Amino acid sequence: MTLIIEPEQGAAVKQRNKNFINGSKKVFIESYGCQMNFSDSEIVASIMEKDGFSITKQYKEADLILINTCSIRENAEQKVRNRLKTYNGLKEKKPETIIGVLGCMAERLKAQLLVEESLVDIVAGPDSYRDLPNLVSEVLDGRKAVNVILSKEETYADIRPVRLSSNGVTSFISIMRGCDNMCTFCVVPFTRGRERSRNPVSIVNEAQDLYNKGYREVTLLGQNVDSYLWYPGGGLKKEFSSLSAEEQKESVNFAQLIERVAKIHPDLRIRFSTSHPKDMTDEVLHTMAKYKNLCNYIHLPIQSGSSSILAKMNRGYSREWYMERIKSIREIIPDCGISADIISGFCSETGIDHKETISLMNMVKYNFAYMFKYSERPKTLAERKYEDDVDEETKSSRLSEIIALQQKHSLELHRQRIGQICEVLIEGVSKRSADALFGRNTQNSVVIFPKGKLKAGNYVHVKITDCTSATLIGEVV
Ligand code: 5AD
Ligand code: SF4
Fold first, then answer.
1. What spacing in Å lies between the alpha carbon of 180 and ligand 2's midpoint?
2. Can you tell me the distance from the alpha carbon of 189 to that of 379, in angstroms, rounded to the nearest whole number?
3. pLDDT of residue 461
4. How are beta strands 446-450 and 471-476 bridged, if at all?
5. In angstroms, what is the span from residue 185 Cα to ligand 1's centroid?
6. Three-class SS of residue 115?
7. Ligand 1 pocket mutation, candidates 73, 303, 312, 357, criterion most atoms within 8 A of CB
């Protein structure tokens, strides 16, 4: 359903119609936030190409500018607002340009962006991308258009994404949408709606197609991949136990899905994100151990090392449960890279809670971590129930301590690799030197080495000779 707002008349509309009739219409798509958003933009590109648009990398020459936005933290939204101001600057010179906001902010700020601030012409939420051509038509008729309706079924399973800014070697595949978890700090369940799993056949076909085109690594994406469960007919998430005997027989869980993708070809590496400590099963770990091309790497957000804060975050696990999951990973997949997300300064976090995060980091020793200050988000349970009572200074100093410790651990773990040989999938030319290539080992560490006659898409064995906290440095053997 399309909601139509306020008519708009005049020269700009006439010029727009001319541009669009000429058949040379161009769309510029920019993405912010998580990998899922970048993956969604590739779905949007596919939908717009089918509607006759060509993709441009220059926003100044675009007839349609689409920004795929993120609401996860306040500063993410601020970045997008600044970008919108830049595009509106262009609009003063080229009033016929159409500006659309997609993704999480669209859902959250529809009225504000369209009416109060009048910054955009189109607002489309994460489940309404198929409607974009109609929304553009509304604007061509001189109106503003919104569709932020969240769906119970949409997984865009049949859409072949157009790979934007691709290196031709690694790619993302969305395997599910939405999230049912309701972590109290998180806005995602409100912006992306209920959890649904995508048909496994369409996932395997997409991965096979990428392999045929020369890609050698796919990352399967979902907010909580361990809860992936497809059943005949699809639709909203159901527990395995609530499926009929017939549905259970035909259902596919996450372990079964990664096994299917792994079987496509041993040269196709598979990664996935994000795992959830409450749902990650030993079955998944055993499947990872069984197939060499299922990379030894797990992103397992902890958020906090304190069980009472974890309960307040509604994460569904305790510190002890999390450590038991780490123990299983270490036992079943020796030499597995592990990373995490960590939040400092969640509501009521004391110095003792913070120390528990520090001690957990010391116990796990993550290869890598994404670390954030808590940012209160409108509509979330935390905003409604708890006071954002840790002051900015304390949030910052705790975050600095977490970052410094993580850097120390990253460096320590990298140093242990010196002298070892690892298999690297080459992704491209290093940003720091045109004479060097970069790729990743199975644990997801970036490895840099001299170029020689090698090229992206090849596998090479690299002997590690040096490192920083961020990269391994070596020579091809
Ligand atoms: N404040 C800070 N960090 C957050 N994240 C999610 N919501 C918030 C918030 N309100 C972090 C979590 C999550 C990652 C994607 O972003 O660590 O795992
Ligand atoms: Fe947000 Fe929690 Fe869902 Fe992740 S699992 S998207 S943190 S609600």
1. 8
2. 10
3. 98
4. parallel
5. 7
6. helix
7. 73
Is 100:65 a contact under the CB 8 Å cutoff?
yes
Letter for the amino acid at 332? I
**Dist CA 421 CA 47 (whole Å):** 44
- What is the C-alpha separation between 310 and 308, in angstroms, rounded? 5
Any ligand 2 atom below 6 A from CB of 443: no
Q: Which residue, by CA, sits nearest to atom 2 of ligand 2?
A: 183
Contacts of 158 (CB under 8 A, 6+ apart): 202
Q: Is residue 28 within 8 Å of 56, Cβ to Cβ? A: yes
pTM of the complete model: 0.94
Domains, the chain, ordered by start: 3-147 (3.40.50.12160), 166-295 (3.30.750.210), 421-476 (2.40.50.140)
DSSP state of 303: B
Run of H or E residues at 252: strand 252-253
Show the beta-strand stretches assigned E in 350-409: 368-373
> How many C-beta atoms surround the C-beta of residue 201 within 10 A?
12
Specify the 3-state DSSP secondary structure of 473.
Answer: strand
SS3 308: helix
User: Which tens digit of pLDDT belongs to each residue from 180-194?
Assistant: 999 999 999 999 999
* H or E stretch at 450: strand 446-450
* Closest by Cα among 154, 277, 168 to 218: 168
Low-confidence stretches of the chain (pLDDT < 70) are 1-10, 22, 114-117
CA distances from 311 to 223, 303, 360, 364 (A): 19, 11, 16, 20
Sign of CA dihedral 98, 104, 110, 114: negative
Structure confidence at residue 5 (pLDDT): 46
Q: Indicate the SS3 state at residue 279.
A: coil
Dump pLDDT digits (tens) for 92-139. 889 999 999 999 998 778 777 766 667 899 999 999 999 999 999 999
Residue 214: enclosing H or E segment and its boundaries?
none
Instruction: Supply the DSSP string of 86-106, one letter for each residue.
Output: HHHHHHHH-TT-EEEEEEHHH
Ligand nearest to the CA of 75: 1
